[in-house]
Amino acid sequence: MSGPSPASAPDAILLRTSINGDAVSVAVEPHHTLLEVLRYQLDLIGSKQGCDKGDCGACTVQIDGKPALACLTLAVHAEGRAVTTVEGLGDAHGGCHPLQDAFDRHDAAQCGFCTPGILMSADSLLRRNPRPVSRDEVREALAGNLCRCTGYTKILDAVVDASEVMHGHGSDDAKKEVAQ
Amino acid sequence: MLRLPRFGVQTPDTLEDAVAALAQPGARLVAGGTDILPNLKHRLDQPPVLVSLSRVASLREIREEDGNLVIGAGVTLTEIAEHDRVRALFPSVAYAAGVIASPLIRNMGTLGGNVNLDTRCRYVNQTHFWRTAIGGCLKSEGDVCHVVPKGRICVAAMSSDLVPVLGSLGSTLVNQGPDGPRELPLLDYYGADGTAHIKREPGEVTREVRIPLPSTPTRARYAKWTVRKSIDFPLVSVAINVQLASDSVDAEVTGVSVVVGVLGSKPRVVTRLDEVIGRKLSDATVAHTVATRVHAQCKPLENVPYEAPYRRQMIRVFAQRAIEEMVAEG
Ligand SMILES: Cc1cc2nc3c(=O)[nH]c(=O)nc-3n(C[C@H](O)[C@H](O)[C@H](O)COP(=O)(O)OP(=O)(O)OC[C@H]3O[C@@H](n4cnc5c(N)ncnc54)[C@H](O)[C@@H]3O)c2cc1C
Ligand code: SF4
């Protein structure tokens, strides 16, 4: 990769990465963000383009399991890393992650724009904690994801419920759903 | 949608290669990208090439060496906040790292980016469209300052949470340049001109910050106030480090260091604190005297949101409370 002169357009770079478990090779513009590559080159439009400058968290994905902002990640920084987007969240759970079921039960998505980012932050929290999580832990883990509709209450309910379901507890509704 | 300007990216594997790549005209460094990328999206600069530190593994260590805790420039804010030795030795550092921005940004942002953070101002951290609608300013497209209208230099705010804390602990900074490493007191790294507040020599890359291990018992604290409890940059930022004759809040104060951020473009070291030396930390006059000095010497400007007079009052309140909390904790 040689340094371009300001006058000429810098060359595209071949990015080799893993996205939702699939090995991906894609030519990317060096000034493109991971979010732009996901949405506009790979058609993975689950991650949302909100403020585009790190304030809102709608673009949250996981990089090597840790939640990060795709809008402030250069695409080339994903080289050799494992990226997970909301599209890959349910893969290990046969399609729907317990968090997604819980968001459905609790009406935790209203307009839904923040939901993919919140799910990715919440999933990372649940994977870090091998036990049901407390509301305060959820609050802290979601402190970088803004929601303008729900007032957060239903989101907190849903994440706590999902973590209980995953550890064999959970609300009556959840138990019914899991039993079906 | 905020698009980045076109640039090339290079991803060297070693610090030496990063220093060499930085010699290209106009090249800039990117680490976590959480400061430079929003600024480039806002067209505050248009570098032809970014030199990425993402693959320089040697910058990612925390170690103890020669009586210092050494934190590499590539260590993330989350790693600093959660690191056992940092928490045990320097709780104010772990705390400050843990209240920066949001968990997402702390997973990405690095120490090197934090100590080299650009200054911030309500008139400049805006879109290009917004800024040019008011004719720009000294730090962007114009030739006036909207904060100090007759001012000749930019007074945009030094907004790092870690700089005041690391400064209060007597830390040094090591920059690696084309001629080798250069170590300097962290607080000497900052100057008063907000368009160029960092005294980084051409081609230098910050390698690490060294925090001297305390030689006496200490109590240290960082007070940050923001409107929201997450995401926001500090509006009040006060770091306090107190040295004690023995490990008790009833012991005599043998030294005290107070560094305040978010005033002008460099952190302010509060002076004339000698008068509390020799008093017990638990003596209520200590908190009061320190807070009075802080209030007298620290004059916030209208460079960040929230009225400067309110912030000035709050600096006093937060400084006093910080010491009272040290005492209450014992
Ligand atoms: C929404 C939001 C909220 C924020 N809130 C806070 C906050 O509350 N407190 C706070 O302190 N910061 C805050 N930040 C700023 C930023 O996230 C942090 O300061 C972070 O530590 C910057 O590190 P980085 O690695 O992302 O820096 P980058 O963006 O990669 O770099 C920042 C600057 O430092 C230079 N640089 C990077 N590494 C080096 C190096 N090793 N040597 C020399 N120069 C280097 C770059 O060239 C650039 O000029 C916030 C940012 C956002 C987007
Ligand atoms: S302090 Fe003045 S010159 Fe500096 S960024 Fe703000 S308005 Fe511009």
Outline the structure in words:
The complex is a heterodimer of chains A (180) and B (330). Chain A has 180 residues and is α+β, with helices and mostly antiparallel strands. Chain A has two domains: 13-88, Ubiquitin-like (UB roll), CATH 3.10.20; 98-179, Orthogonal Bundle (DNA polymerase, domain 1). In chain A, 33% of the residues lie in helices and 14% in strands. Chain A is built from six helices and five strands; from the N terminus they run E-E-H-E-E-E-H-H-H-H-H. A five-stranded mixed β-sheet of chain A has the order 2-1-5-3-4, sandwiched between helices. In chain A, helix 2 packs across helix 5. The model of chain A is unreliable at 1-5 (pLDDT under 50). Chain B is of the alpha+beta class. Among the domains of chain B are: 57-117 and 157-212, Uridine Diphospho-n-acetylenolpyruvylglucosamine Reductase, domain 3, CATH 3.30.465.10; 218-329, 2-Layer Sandwich (Enolase-like, domain 1). In chain B, the strands form three sheets. Chain B has a five-stranded antiparallel β-sheet with strand order 4-5-8-6-7, with helices on one face. Chain B has a four-stranded antiparallel β-sheet with strand order 9-10-11-12. A three-stranded parallel β-sheet of chain B has the order 1-3-2, with no helix packed on it. The A-B interface holds A 1-6, 9-11, 13, 29-33, 49, 52-55, 57, 60, 66-69, 72-74, 76-77, 79, 121, 140-141, 143-146 and B 1-2, 4-11, 21, 24, 26-27, 30, 32-34, 37-38, 41-42, 46, 48-50, 52, 54, 78, 101-105, 107-108, 229-231.
